[in-house]
């Protein structure tokens, strides 16, 4: 492998791509971003599986609410790992042989943040995590307080605020990381639509 054509991560060196060939440059950028996102997803999948196994093994005999909460939370982690595996799978190699406008549509869809299908999958996962986490919290705090209604209300407010905050922050971060690539994809789509 020549060092002038490949860098340390086995990604093509973008400096070797001629500037006048915007489509080839875009394809190389898309492939590099897909690989980078897939690596990140695999790390998170590993973390979620370890957490799920930890939650399953940490059940306590005789604690029905706690055990149910742990299983629900572990189920949410497993579903989250499965979602990440499906969501960040590589673009099919056949997509690169599609007409350029079809490829650009696929690439734009792949790099869009929170599509409708993402919401439809993530909402049940968050409900599982929220319900399981709430059950664990209530079962643990019931040893110290009899006011479980207050604990549930505090948990719901905290969990919803956490979700809103995390989606806002992750949306901004995702936009910063992928805005240039999305602009390039949309710019090329506009160019091909004009021609």
Characterise the protein shown here:
The chain has 195 residues and is mostly helical. It has one domain (14-194). It has 5 helices and no strands. Helix 1 runs antiparallel to helix 5 (148-194), helix 2 packs antiparallel against helix 4 and helix 4 runs antiparallel to helix 5 (148-194). The longest helix is centred in the C-terminal third of the chain and has 47 residues, at 148-194. The chain is elongated, with a radius of gyration of 22 Å. The two termini are 39 Å apart. Residues 1-20 have low confidence and may be disordered.
Unreliable stretches covering 5 or more consecutive residues? 1-20
Number of helices: 5
The number of domains:
1
Mean pLDDT: 85
Task: Kindly estimate the percentage of residues that lie in beta strands according to DSSP.
Answer: under 5%
Helix fraction by DSSP (H/I, runs of at least 4): over 70%
Topology (elements, then pairings):
Blueprint: H1 22-57, H2 64-87, H3 100-111, H4 116-141, H5 148-194
Helix pairs in contact: 1-2, 1-5, 2-4, 3-5, 4-5
């Amino acid at each position: 492998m020549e060092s002038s054509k490949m860098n340390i991560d086995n990604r093509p060196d973008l400096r070797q791509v001629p500037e006048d060939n915007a489509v080839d440059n875009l394809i190389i950028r898309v492939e590099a971003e897909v690989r980078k996102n897939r690596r990140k997803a695999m790390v998170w999948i590993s973390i979620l599986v370890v957490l799920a196994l930890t939650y399953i093994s940490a059940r306590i005999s005789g604690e029905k609410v706690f055990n149910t909460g742990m299983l629900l939370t572990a189920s949410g982690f497993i579903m989250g790992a499965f979602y990440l595996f499906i969501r960040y799978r590589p673009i099919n190699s056949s997509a690169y042989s599609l007409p350029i406008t079809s490829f650009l549509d696929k690439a734009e869809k792949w790099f869009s943040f929170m599509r409708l299908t993402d919401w439809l999958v993530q909402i049940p996962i968050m409900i599982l995590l929220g319900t399981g986490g709430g059950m664990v919290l209530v079962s643990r705090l019931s040893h110290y307080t009899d006011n479980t209604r207050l604990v549930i209300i505090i948990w719901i407010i905290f969990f919803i605020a956490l979700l809103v905050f995390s989606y806002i922050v992750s949306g901004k971060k995702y936009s910063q990381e992928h805005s240039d690539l999305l602009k390039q994809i949309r710019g090329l789509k506009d160019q091909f639509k004009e021609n």
